[in-house]
Amino acid sequence: MALLLTILVDGLTYASWLFIVALGLTLVFGILKILNVAHGSFYALGAYAAASMVAWFASMQLAPAFSIVAMLLAAVVVAAVVAPLCERGLLRMFYGRDEVLLVLVTFALFLIMEDLTKQIWGVNPLYVADPYMLFGMVEIGELSYVGYDFMLVLVALIVGVSVWWGLNRTRFGKLVLVVIHNEEIAASMGVNVSRIYTVAFSVGIFLAALGGAFTAPMISVQPGVSVGVIIISFAVVIIGGLGSIPGAAVGALIVGMARSAAVHLWPVAELFSIYLVMAIVLMFRPEGLFQRVQARKI
Amino acid sequence: MKSTRIIQSALRNTRLLAVASCLSLAQTSPAVAQEFRIGIVSFLSGQAADSFGVPAVNGAKVLIEAFNQGKAPAPYNKPGFGGMTIVPVFVDENGGATKQVQELRNLYDRENVDAVVGYVSSGDCLAVAPVAEEMKKLLILYDCGTPRIFEEASYQYVFRTASHGAMDNVAAARYLKARDTKVETINLINQDYAWGHDSIKDFTLSMAVLYPNAKVQADQRPKFGAGQYGTEISQLMTQPADITHSSLWGGDLQAMILQASPRGMFRKSQVVLTAADHVLIPLGDRMPEGVVLGARGAYGMLAPKSTLNDWWWNLYQNRWNVYPVQAPYRMAQGLMGLKLAVEKAMAANRGKKPTTEQIAAALTGLEWESPGGRIKMALGGGHQAIQPTAIGITKWDADKRMMVMKDIQRFDAECVNPPPTMKSEDWIKAGFPGAKCK
């Protein structure tokens, strides 16, 4: 029983982190039809920006609690500055072209951003460790967990509900849904499709950067942090269905739980368990768990 | 007639050009002969850059400058390599083994380097060694740890100037035994690739010899670059063992420490880190005290007191504002060995620049003093080094505001490395026959 509880707790905390990052990836694909390989780079950028922002706040002698504000602000800055620059300055030139070409363009963006982060922050590791202990320790059974991990569960919940509410309960969200349904008809009805693309891409990037910013206190921020997160995020959105928000949530939970169970019961099968689940889902639901089968447009 | 004159004029010009070229070559040739070009390959980007690649390259830069200026202490005090100016060509190791094979060919064919000193990744070392041998060019592997290089093949042109990874785990096991540490249960957390697997094998085999009743409980193998270790830490803590062994390094090790330390893993189990000195500086007081720690050699805080080490430590620290850790030490011992081999071959060649074969012959079986101790090219037919090592325990020095090492125990090279006649795995399994320990 204690083992089951531990597996559930570990699975939930891992899934929360994964959901925050994967949600941005699925959102960008759902609206812009871009499989954004550079998503991990925005995650890394969020982590670097958080490291700088937290250090800046600390230099102003602000209370440690403000470091959470600093991390949030770092993600906002990345979304507000870098995302529109990439969308308007690069991706827009390739809209309407083959989706494979867009994958290659985002891969190029990934490589460029990897080098840019090195140019700006160098190769030495940065630390944002102070916020990690802000929420104390939580005792569950015989194990103690860092309270920060459970704060991430709360952040994931807030982010998931906010994005769902924004899409389904606001005027802007309804316009986004119209664009997803049919971009041409939306444009002919006077919807500013271009603006919707920019905002949607920025929100997706905000989520990637938020994931990076809130992960920064748990790791040493250094070159290479972007690589692993892309692969696992793709597994999540493929299981859930590309472009589906509930899919990202369920996909993250499935991956988190499968990984946690494997690490506790059969550690050598950690990665295998994730891709086994993915293969089983794709066998029965090739479009993912929450993606509706779509009629091909001619 | 006019066309004949044009042809004659063109021929005259061509002859003039040829004579000018010959004169120019004659003028430049002696200058070229005074250079010794070295390709230096290490991670300048990617996950290994911060911990290994960049510190190693920084070490190469200061040492080559000191060599060229003749400012190194004896026996390294001749300017350059026997008077030849050392010209380094730096190449990024990031990008995988296939890319490295092409880069190695470029270094020899296009950059015309006389030798290549490089490679952190064991995969890269395994890929490039046969290529250098095929091209009959000198290759010094300065860092990678896999024992397979010289245990599964023999080379004439390839050398490794640092011990392979078996030494680190044998020394860690011997350290625990020497301090009479109680070990009935063992947990393991190592990366899921060649380095991690080799470390698990060498450590568990060594422990089986020294602690025959100890049992392995948990064996975690997170993927390289995982970053998140919460679940692994929970699993290790649900079955806390007497010791927890790890060969994690770089960002992975730092993330594991940052996540495991607040949860009390370092209090519940004696943690043994075999390749971890490079995280002491960046982690500072976030590094737990009481950790048994190795540096893959007697490097950094574990280095022996000597004039050569003091000189090297100050040279590096004055230039980079940080003390040298394992990667620059290994780079330094590689370059020092190459310098002595070139100068030895040069002396035998009546002061002329030696050929690759002459340098290779001089380096085979060579011994030299390095900041981390005496290096002996004793294995692999004189192509694979053995060296002394040291293990210690972390302790926070409040006055210096830095993590230091206490209870340091030194191991002679022959105590923790196999003899030339045995493969490391067979040697450990057989109970370290022929080991010479004080």
| Major beta sheet, strand line-up of chain A | 1-2
Largest contact between chains: A-B, 45 and 37 residues
**Structural class of the secondary structure composition of chain B?**
alpha/beta
Radius of gyration over C-alpha positions of chain B, nearest whole angstrom: 24 Å
Q: Which fold name fills CATH's third level, the topology of the largest domain in chain B? A: Rossmann fold
What sort of overall outline of chain B do the alpha carbons produce when their principal axes are compared? globular
**Helix coverage percent of residues of chain B?**
40-55%
Series of secondary-structure elements of chain A, N-terminal to C-terminal: HHHHEEHHHHHHH
- The tally of structural domains of chain B comes to 2
User: What about the largest sheet of chain A?
Assistant: 2 strands, antiparallel
Mean pLDDT of chain B: 92
Give the beta-strand count of chain B. Answer: 15
> What is the makeup of the main sheet of chain B?
7 strands, mixed
Question: What is the domain total for the residues of chain A?
Answer: 1
From the spread of the alpha carbons, the general shape of chain A counts as globular
Model regions low in confidence, pLDDT < 50 over at least 5 residues of chain B: 16-32
